[in-house]
Design a protein that fits this description.
The protein is 25% helix and 23% strand. Among the domains are: 40-246, Enolpyruvate transferase domain (UDP-n-acetylglucosamine1-carboxyvinyl-transferase, Chain), CATH 3.65.10; 258-362, no CATH class. With 510 residues, it is α/β, with parallel strands linked by helices. The strands form eight sheets. A four-stranded mixed β-sheet has the order 22-23-1-24. The two termini are 31 Å apart.
């Protein structure tokens, strides 16, 4: 059977997003339960593991966005058979079936004509493919967009050379473009630093079994690095001999909708009711307002950003009156339930999560990009000026070397909106501020666009430049904002130049 890839587009005819859009603040109460696409981090890890498997692996709920399409296209270029089918439950998910070849990579180039693999600005594709290609028997050239050529690769390339593989980089500081000379499995030992990116360790671990590699990790405690832990846990349960693997929703993408609920109302009371099974640990938050995210991955422990709802109280800042909607348990039927728990209330009994000990009720609070949250810390930073107290965000160094220089970008755009933000080293301190509208530069960074769009649900006059950059991980994000409740928030989004209200079919990022 010929190798093929089925690339299925959104079935509704979509029109291009304008270059500038305006988010109109929501004023009415909203009750919604939002579905978000699958995790990018898990999907791209799973695609590599599926290609390495002994047999056919079907990935259900896989994210279908620019980054994951890039990975699928690279696998197809390498000769793998990949089938992509529509997921009826979520427009931006797919069911992806990969015929694993047990470590064999079918195609490769030569030194004079290497096989070209374009990774765009997908860090996971660039990093995960590099060790994977070492298992091949040809020469491969990895390249991307200019920003990807600025992002760190040196520690990963150094580790591959320790394993005996040849990696040539065009830049003196070991960045892309790079030529990788595959030699097949070659048992050996290496040490990799994850000071610049934990993706370096994950990349090596994903292919280590087939390569016969022993990987030591330096620069951070591997057990405390959330994305390395994600990789290890995924590898433990992945069907290496073929089978079905379910991708959970992306917690970073879900953070925007949890935060939207806080931004819309501030504080209100809730009423607890017992769940259908009668257990005290399964309750539902009932109120005039409720925005939740379906199938929240609170219990899996794979995604650090699944902890995001615990930090909602930092934005509310209303003490024990406010109750945070949290996923706290799963029914046996995988139905995610919600629980409204006051700050500081019954935390020892396992009925919720408290921010009291971190100081949310008493003054400034610190949140770390290294130990508390992953990319969703950007959501908190963007909305922090609406909090009644200052919030300190620490350990932000990795944000500087991602899709854009995110520390500077966040500070710059928040300042444009009237916020007081102090940068010191890799720390941002954000103060309560009176905000106003502004045109937000997104720096072609999907998370900048989404963070400030949520701020626009509360602050009038927020306009987003280049909104189509959300296609990297969440192509239908703006459709989720504008769709009627309960599947969306019912927000109005306008053309930023003409003021014309945009229809749903105009809000899909392609």
């Amino acid at each position: 059977m010929d190798f093929e890839v089925w690339i299925l587009k959104f079935e509704v005819l979509n029109m291009a997003l304008p270059d500038l859009i305006e988010i109109v603040p929501l004023t009415a109460t909203v009750r919604a339960e939002i579905t978000v696409p699958g995790s990018k981090s898990i999907t791209n890890r799973a695609l590599i593991l599926a290609a390495l498997a002994e047999g056919e692996v079907t990935l259900q709920g896989a994210l279908w966005s620019e980054d994951t399409q890039i990975m699928v296209e690279c696998l197809h270029t390498l000769g793998f058979e990949v089938r992509v089918e529509v997921d009826p439950a979520e427009v931006c998910n797919r069911t992806i079936t990969v015929k694993g070849l047990g470590g064999l990579i079918p195609s490769g180039g030569t030194a004079s004509q290497p096989l070209e693999l374009f990774v765009g600005n997908a860090g996971t594709a660039a990093r995960f493919l590099a060790p994977f290609l070492c298992l091949g028997s040809g020469v491969y050239r990895l390249s991307g967009v200019p920003r990807m050529h600025e992002r760190p690769q040196a520690a990963l390339f150094k580790a591959l050379r320790e394993l005996g593989y040849r990696v040539d980089a065009e830049a003196k500081n070991d960045k892309l473009p790079a030529w990788i000379y595959g030699k097949g499995p070659q048992p050996g030992k290496c040490t990799v630093s994850i000071a610049a990116s934990s993706q370096f360790a994950s990349a090596l671990l994903l292919s280590a079994g087939q390569g016969g590699w022993q990987v030591a990790i330096s620069g951070e405690n591997a057990e405390e690095s959330p994305y390395v832990v994600m990789t290890s846990k995924l590898m433990e349960v992945f069907p290496k001999g073929g089978g079905i693997f379910e991708i959970e929703p992306d917690a970073s993408s879900g953070s925007y909708f949890w935060a939207a609920g806080i931004e819309l109302v501030g504080s209100l009371e809730t009423t607890r009711v017992e769940s259908p099974d009668g257990g005290c640990g399964c309750a539902t938050s009932i109120s005039a307002w409720s925005i939740t995210v379906s199938n929240w991955p609170y219990r899996s422990g794979w995604q650090i950003d699944a902890n995001f709802p615990k930090y909602l109280g930092l934005l509310a800042g209303v003490g024990s009156v406010f109750r945070i909607p949290l996923v706290i348990a799963d029914y046996e039927q995988s139905h995610a339930t919600k629980c409204g728990t006051a700050l500081g209330e019954r935390i020892e009994e396992g009925h919720g999560n408290s921010l009291e000990k971190s100081g949310a009720k008493h003054g400034p609070t610190t949140v770390s990009r290294q130990t508390n949250l992953g990319d969703s810390i950007m959501t908190l930073i963007a909305l922090a000026p609406t909090s009644p107290h200052k919030i300190v965000f620490t350990d932000l160094g990795r944000l500087r070397v991602q899709e854009c220089e995110r520390v500077v970008a966040l500070k710059t755009e928040l300042t444009e909106c009237g916020a007081k933000v102090i940068e010191a080293g890799d720390t941002l301190t954000v103060y309560p501020s009176a905000l106003h509208g502004a045109e937000i530069e997104t720096y072609n960074d999907h998370r900048m666009a989404m963070c400030f769009a949520i701020l626009g649900l509360k602050v009038p006059g927020i306009k987003i430049k280049n909104p189509a950059c959300v296609k990297k991980t969440f192509p239908n994000f703006f459709q989720k904002l504008a769709a009627p409740a309960p599947q969306g928030l019912g927000a109005t989004i306008r053309d930023g130049l003409t003021g014309r209200e945009l229809a749903l079919e105009e809000l899909f990022a392609e």
